[in-house]
Design goal:
Layout (H helix, E strand, L loop, with lengths): L1 E4 L5 E5 L2 E5 L14 E5 L10 H10 L4 E4 L1 H6 L5 E3 L5 E4 L2 E9 L11 E7 L3 E3 L14 E5 L7 H11 L3 E5 L6 H17 L3 E2 L7 E3 L1
Helix pairs in contact: 3-4
Length: about 210
């Protein structure tokens, strides 16, 4: 299984020609080469994690692609056949086994309503928490997509999260709001956190790939 990091919070996994997209949002370059997509996971309804245009492009190329998300995504993307999932659910699509955790977006500010958010574990290998620090209980995380910068977090929280999960490997996600200098600082802090559990930190840039 090969993982390719896309811009901001998006990524794509490929196994035997089948593809799984996660959170293709507005800060991600339009996805125009998606042949083979069997599933899309959207962790929550904010448009930096999905847009109608991105979903339409993928569906036009793959009419049978399945779309998974929490109830908030199903409501926001009502023009698409979103299959509603919640924490504790499991789904299998092609070579991909999906397990969902969490349930709520991290608080941005007390004045802003908290929405649905689900983390997803793919093939018991990659864990992607969406916009939260939800812990996948009972899971030995092999590869973690670690939040690097967002209005809902500070870097110390992300560091503590990486230390708590102690993944074998970690890489940054959700970093489009960071400057080049900010990304360097975030990578250094998250790298330190990964090392505390004996893990490796990979400062992936959009287009970079790793094999899982």
């Amino acid at each position: 299984m090969r993982l390719t990091k896309l811009e901001h919070a998006a990524l794509v996994l490929e196994d035997s020609g089948d593809k799984l997209y996660v959170d293709p949002g507005k800060f991600t370059t339009p996805i125009t080469e998606s042949a083979g997509a069997v599933a899309i996971v959207i962790t929550h309804q904010h448009d930096d994690h999905w847009t109608p245009e991105q979903l339409k492009r993928i569906r036009d190329a793959n009419p049978d692609v399945r779309i998974f998300g929490p109830a908030g995504v199903a409501a926001a993307a009502s023009d698409f056949p979103v299959e509603t999932v919640q924490a504790g659910d499991e789904r299998e699509v092609g070579p991909f086994r999906l397990r969902f955790f969490g349930g709520k977006h991290a608080e941005i500010h007390r004045s802003i309503p908290i929405i649905d958010n689900l983390g997803v574990l793919v093939n018991d290998e990659l864990y992607y928490p969406g916009d939260s620090f939800a812990v996948p209980e009972g899971v030995d995380v092999q590869v973690l997509a670690a939040p690097a910068g967002a209005p809902w977090m500070k870097i110390g929280e992300a560091m503590d999260y990486v230390v708590q999960l102690a993944p074998k490997r970690a890489f940054p996600t959700h970093e489009m709001l960071l400057s080049t200098a900010g990304k360097a600082i975030s990578n250094a802090r998250l790298g330190w956190a990964a090392e505390q559990g004996g893990g490796e930190y990979l400062p992936l840039e959009p287009g970079d790939t790793i094999d899982l």
